[in-house]
Structures are given as structure tokens and as C-alpha cells.
Sequence to fold (686 residues):
Amino acid sequence: ALVSSPEQVRFPSPSKKKKKNHLVPSLIGNARFTSSKIPLFKEDSVSMSRPFGLKDYRKIYERSIEDPAGFWSEIASQFYWKEKWDLEVYSENIDVRKGSIKFEWFKGASTNISYNTLDRNIEAGNGGKVAIYWEGNEPDDDGQLTYLELLERVCQLANYLKHVGVRKGDAVIIYLPMLMELPIAMLACARIGAVHSVVFAGFSSESLSQRIIDCKPKLVITCNAVKRGSKAIHLKDIVDSALRESAKNGVTVDLCLTVENKSAMKRGDTKWKEGRDIWWQDVVPHFPTKCDVEWVDAEDPLFLLYTSGSTGKPKGVLHTTGGYMVYTATTFKYAFDYKPSDIYWCTADCGWITGHSYITYGPLLNGATVVAPNYPDCGRCWDIVDKYKVTIFYTAPTLVRSLMREGDEYVTRHDRKSIRVLASVGEPINPSAWRWFYNVVGNSRCPISDTWWQTETGGLMITPLPGAWPQKPGSATFPFFGVQPVIVDEKGNEIEGECSGYLCIKKSWPGAFRTLYGDHERYQTTYFKPFAGYYFTGDGCSRDKDGYFWLTGRVDDVINVSGHRIGTVEVESALVSHPQCAEAAVVGIEHEIKGQGIYAFVTLVEGVPFSEEIRKSLILSVRNQIGAFAAPDKIHWAPALPKTRSGKIMRRILRKIASRQLDELGDTSTLADPSVVDQLIALADF
Ligand code: PRX
Fold:
């Protein structure tokens, strides 16, 4: 077996020649970079952190495409593997015409990601290094865990899980806010080979029960309540009702391990079901702080994460162990130019993929120190940056826009000198937000990594490498090593050069999801059938004359609200479940802060008049069924919806009405009743 320095993932070297100091060229597109302003990779710092520019990138990229097996196995060798992989390194079928879709990486190898994040770092002398800093709701509510302490806490929970009968391959649902117990629970599951499925704690009990019914967990891990601002949210009540609902559907969960979150709610106030509910604090600390790892196959499942699609119920995206481990660690290292001295803060929640790959796994695999905060207000964010001397700050455009609205003062009165890399994810970052992020937050001296990727891709796919080439505000620039994005036209033909079309990926990569849990057919149909021979991302994309990629948003019925992916059909079914709603059609509209907002057209049951009360209760229905983050911004009463003669709702027209582009309605003559459109416009309160 191989053990190497855990501090860094290193790249296979592109060439032995000594590199000249790379100067970042100035002015391409709208961003002006000069070498004096952008911190470059320094000769004396570790790993890739030598002068690194477009030429180096191209060389390494070419190697990664020509020889993926050699490239990735060289990187993978730096992790600990109990057994090494087969000679083949990877195998794939990405073409539905040739049979079932299958991606496999490091097949035959056995490893454990919890071992690689914790034990491996500790053995290399990093046990005393802080792994996670934690910031609670209140500024003085904070904490930290070293790698050694984190390992001990993970082991205690892993031992407890084994004690209650959780075995390799069993599912565990984690419904927790951003408490330390969340990454601990993820790593404990991974340690014993159990498959975690984290459900974002903003989801409603309906959504939670849907996920429980789908993956039938051995237990649910939650907490009694959490404070968001001044409000306490009773998570345990939500779990109780989800478990009741699941039981009605034949899925019973015998155990609910509950963290007592004292700052939000007292034990005595928590509703309790004897025999099923157990306080974490009463049992877990009594278990030993050492726990042998379960060695798992590289292709054994690591986690399930449910995400929204354009049709039907949420999809259980399944990621496996080996490829995901190698991919998240490597992308983290290079896209953020991570060095051991960095303090890294990602503002995401572990309930989403960003928190999985770039809070729990990628950074800790690199031995990084992570800051995990809770709901900062607009000044709090920079307080935290200064308090921990954060050097890498990874966030979402929606947060950037909302902070930008509050004015520069909140930012500029803080020092922020520690920051050297800024990064963004979740949705296209509009150039004005990009510039504010760059100029105000980064004082025009920090490169921005605009990282494009998805729950399905496991790790980032198209991203700048900080300072390595000129940036253009709003462009995610170039593919990461080993990633082959292509733009195809409607017929699925690859188009070259400057063009716009659908973004697809041509070959497998280690971090790719392997299936949708329990529904391989849906996996193939959704992602691999639209354009045979490719993985279809669901995103539109253009490429400019310099080869830069520009992501333009979803081309399917998925809306991206504050970086949260929501299927229009999910919102529609939540609306029509309201007893007075007959029909609903939901479209996305541009939203200044959230990127996209939700605009719902609703037809009420015959004879029911539209009123403020109905509007409110329709919104409540969505909050209850999905979660507050999916609440429509606008309810537009539609006595009838524009439909074709075959009864299909013309969403194109609804999108135009919702975005007030009334002179762009296009041809309405194919509608069964064109007068419906005028009626809708008359009822709009623009
Ligand atoms: O439309 C793209 C958008 O977010 C979608 C993926 O959402 P999700 O699976 O929830 O993962 C979000 C975090 C990785 C994509 O299909 N998206 C994500 N990042 C970007 C983006 N769009 C443009 N630019 C980005 N940097």
C-alpha cells in the first residue's frame, strides 16, 4: 500500500524544463489583469505553486486527455489504498447505443475516504492542526476541532453506528444544519462503509419523507432545533412528521439520533418518542475514540444526494468512493491554489453538493483548515474573514449580489487582507457582481475562480486556475484536467470554435456520478439519451473566439434560485396539491439577488375567486411541500392557461409574460384559444 505526504495532491509534472516566471497577459474581454495585481504561483511555494500559466495548463491538460489512465493513477497513488486498482485504471461506456452506461475508476482497489481525510493526515504529523473552525448563529458562539479531535469524534459515532447495527452499504439520512456534527456524521458513515444521504435542513417534512421512502435508511440523524437569526426552527418536529408519513408508506425507521442543540432549544421542550429517539450526547461520547475502518471497493457507494430534475420526483445522485476522492481533492487543490497555510471558507451548506465536495471531503483530504459558519449577516461575513484570516473564500453569486446591495461600507471597513483567492459557484455570476466581488471584496488583487459544475459531476469541471490566465467576468474559462466539454447543436453534432449550444461532456472523469439510486434507466434517459455518445449537462453554453466557456443557464425545466436547483414540476405539483388549485404552470424569471425567481401561473377550481388569502395559502403549500427556499416570488392568477390544441401548456409564452416581454410573445395562433393570452396580460400587475 502507498502512503505519501497527505498535505498536497501533486500533479504529474508536465515537463522537466524550468519555467519562466509567467506574466498574466493584460486585457482580454473586460477584465484587466496585470501581473503586479494578481498573486502568481511563487517559485518557492509547494507543489503546483510555481509559476503556472496557460502553456503549463495546456501541456498538463493534453496529457490528461491523451492518457487519462496514467494521469489519474499518478495522482491517485498519493492516497492510501489498501489494495491497488486493476491494471485498467478505468473503463467506461458513455454511449447508450453501445449498451448500458457505465463508468468505473480504480476498479479493484480498496480504500476508505475517512481514513484518507483523517488518519492519513494525522500520521503525517497534522493531528494538532485545526481541521474545522465553526461559527454559530451568534458571533461569540464558535468552536474548533483539530484533525485528531475530529478523528476521535468520528470514531465514536462510527462505533455507535456499528453498535446499533449499521453495516456497510446501509443508508443513513442526515438532516442537520451546519453543526460540527454534520461533517462528523458524514465521515463516520464513510468510515464504516455506510452510505450517507444528507438532506438540506431547509427541506420540508414532505421532501424529507420522500427521500426516506426512496432510500430506506437504517436511522435518521438530526437535531432538536436550530436558530436562524432570531428564529428557532424545530427540526425534530419536521423529522417526526416525515417519519410518520414514511411509515404510512411502509418505510419505518426505528432510530432517530438527535443532537441536542442547546443554543436553540432545551431538551425538555423537545417532542420525544421513547424507544425511537436517542440523544446523541447521551450515547455517542461513551463509545471508544478508535474505530477500525471498513475498507471498501473504489466503486462502492459513498453517498446519495437528491437533486431536482425537470420531471418527477427528486433523483438520488449516487457517488462512489475512489474516483470521487481523487477528483474532489485534486480539483480543490488546483482550482483554489490551496497551500497548507491557507484558511479556507466555503459559505455553502453540507446539504448541497458544494458542501460535500468542498467542505467535508476535498479540503480535509488536502489537510486544509475549513471554516464552517452559520448564516452571517452582511457585515458578519467579513468579521469571520478577519477573525480567522481566511485566505480562500468560496461563495455563491446570490450572496455576492445581496452583499453588494448593502453597499461597500460593510466590506471596506474590514481588513480582508488575508484573502488571496475568491471563488464562486452555483449559477452564472453576472459581470456586475463579478466586478464588485473582484474590485471591492478582493481590492482588485485576488483572482476569481468561477467554478462550473453540478451535483452529478461530483467536483468542479470548468474553472479558472487562480492567476494562471486572464479572466473575463462571467466566464468559467477552461475545463479542468481530464474534462472534455463539448458544445453540441440540437441534433447532437459537436460544434467548433465560436458558437452556442448545449453543453455536453465527452468522456468519463473520476468524480462522475455512477447512477441514480434505484433507477439506472432514468439515469440513462435523462443524461445520456438526449445526445447519444455524450453526458448531457442540461446547461446552455457558448464559447468565444478565445475558447472561453460561458455558461448561460439551464435549458430544461429546472430553475436555479439562489443557487438552489428546483424543478418547475416540483413547484407545480406542490401548488396543485392545494385543494383550491386546479392547474399551475411555473417559469423562472430574472431576479436581482437570487439570480432566478419563481413565477407561478395558477388556475383555481371553478367558482373560487382569487384573493390575497388564496395567494398566501398557495405559497404556504409550496413551503410545506418543498421548503421555504422554493416559495414562489409571484402568483399570477390565470383563469386559463395558454395551451396548444393538443393540450400542451405553451411555457414559451408564459415566460415572456412573466418577464414582461410582451412584444416578444411570438406566434400565438397555434393556441387552442389565443384570447387566453390577452386575458393573462390584463390580469398582470406589473
Ligand atoms: O446550471 C448550472 C448551475 O447550477 C447547476 C447545477 O446545480 P447543482 O447540481 O445544484 O450544483 C450546484 C453547485 C455545483 C448547473 O447545471 N451552475 C453551477 N455553477 C455554475 C452554474 N452556472 C453557471 N456558472 C457556474 N459557475
In short: The chain has 19 helices and 31 strands. The two ends are 66 Å apart (CA to CA). The chain has a mean pLDDT of 89. The first strand starts at residue 90 and ends at 93.
